[in-house]
Amino acid sequence: MCLALPLKVVKVLDESRCLVEGGGRTRHAFYEGIDDLREGDWVLIEANLVLEKLTEEEGQQAMREALRYVFGNEDEGEHP
Question: One of this protein's Pfam families, by short name (predicted)?
């Protein structure tokens, strides 16, 4: 099973590659077919492929949900 992660674009390298950052780690990703990608955009990544561009609100919400999925919500006793 793969988990798509919301990450932030830190640099657009060319027409098909960018650098994304999340969790204190920077990595390469491929974004062919994603229009108008810019530094600071949130994207949904799976297996180093950009699946879609997200709004700022969607990116932050997706990050909260991903963290909750991975680490659980200790306050409510929920564990995935």
Answer: HupF_HypC
